[in-house]
Amino acid sequence: MMYWKLAIQNIRRSLRDYIIYFVTLTLTAALMYSFLALGFSSDVLAMAENMSMLTTGILLMSALVAFMSSFVIGYAIRFMLGRRKKEFATYELIGMEARTVRNLFLAENSIIGTGAFLLGSLVGTGLSGLLNQVVKISLRCRIPIRFPFLSRHGQ
Predict the structure, then answer these.
(1) Residue 137 pLDDT
(2) What are the residues whose beta carbons fall under 8 Å from the beta carbon of 80, sequence distance 6 or more?
């Protein structure tokens, strides 16, 4: 429990650096959610019966976002480690084991990641409705405008 408090305190202290990391994770989660929701949307699947390339393209786009995001997130983690190298060395000098320091950094990233995932899912839900409309407009389909999170059964 003490390590979770220390992790939260470290996040507050390094808030400026963690904001960039949080925004990156949030945008990644939002894009992944919106592309996958678009790829499996009943409206898009109905339009794509004759256009299997559309669904395949949407799924390939989400795979590309995941691939590119892995590099961005990896860079952000290395950046954070580099910025906090002296702080972690101080923890080890005062007697904290290296394993505990790693677990502390993991706890910080878990807190940030969970918050970013939740916010990104919320943003991605709205973005998926917007992307759904863009696809419909670009294909000139006359399908009523709906947002999955506003309807009763997600349809």
Answers:
(1) 76
(2) 14, 17, 18, 21
Q: What percent of the chain has pLDDT over 90?
A: 21
Among the listed residues 92, 106, 88, 79, the one whose alpha carbon sits nearest the alpha carbon of residue 16: 79
Query: What pTM, to 2 d.p., does this model score?
Result: 0.73
The secondary structure of the chain, three-state, reads CHHHHHHHHHHHHCHHHHHHHHHHHHHHHHHHHHHHHHHCCHHHHHHCCCCHHHHHHHHHHHHHHHHHHHHHHHHHHHHHHHHCHHHHHHHHHCCCCHHHHHHHHHHHHHHHHHHHHHHHHHHHHHHHHHHHHHHHHHCCCCCCCCCCCCCCCCC
Q: Is 5 exposed, middle or buried (0-12, 13-18, 19+ CB in 10 A)?
A: exposed
Check if the beta carbon of residue 41 is closer than 8 Å to that of residue 132: yes
- Average pLDDT of span 89-103: 91
State which amino acid sits at residue 33: Y
| Rounded mean pLDDT, 17-46 | 83
